Amino acid sequence: MSVSTSAAAHEDHDALGAGPGANSAVETQKKDGADAGDGHMGMGSMSTVDMNMGGRDIAGDDMDMGGMHEETANKNKSFGERLVSWLGRLHTMVIHFPIALFIGAFGVELFGLWRRNRDYQHVAHIMLVVGALGAIAAAFLGWFAGGFYLTDRNPILMTHRWLGTLIAVFGVALAWMAARHGKVPERSRTLYWVVLGLMTLAISIQGFLGGTFMHGGLYHLAF
């Protein structure tokens, strides 16, 4: 139930607070996050409870109903609308690759610096190239997931949208910088290290912001 609800919300641009307009979606998200932080039982926790009434599996019935509603909704959409919806759903599948590769490249560079071995720079370069390609794909699909708006009434979504776009741009720049340093090893790597460090921080923030849409608001990492 929790997964299907999150996926549907991520696909619904109005529920996300995409585009200009009233800020009601943000207030709803804050309320949901506050309830989760206070320990109140939400959709995610309900899914772990044995919800049987009179021998009937309520969770299973609700999931079946959700699937029926989604199937009916899809039948009412044109091919173009279904394509946009499908591409938007691919965003959540692609995002894990640039996150892992950029942070991994930072770790490899640190390890190579510790071992004083430049061979690790080549490994980091390959990871940055693949990570940049993944970031481009993730940003491209993210625009389908969040709708093609320049501004959003949900400030979290707007930050997530533009930070993701910048990560794709600077990911390409990082891959180019790594290639340039590979050809001229004596060139200073100070700027490269600054951008790589900032990229690692930005990726971490971006992952946190993305999690707010899928796992219960700003307090989804509350202990």
From TrEMBL:
It comes from the Bacteria. Residues 28-38 have a biased composition (Basic and acidic residues). Residues 1-41 are annotated as: Disordered. Residues 90-212 form the DUF2231 domain. Keywords: Membrane, Transmembrane, Transmembrane helix. Pfam families: DUF2231. The chain crosses the membrane at residues 93-114, 126-150, 162-179, 191-214. This is DUF2231 domain-containing protein.
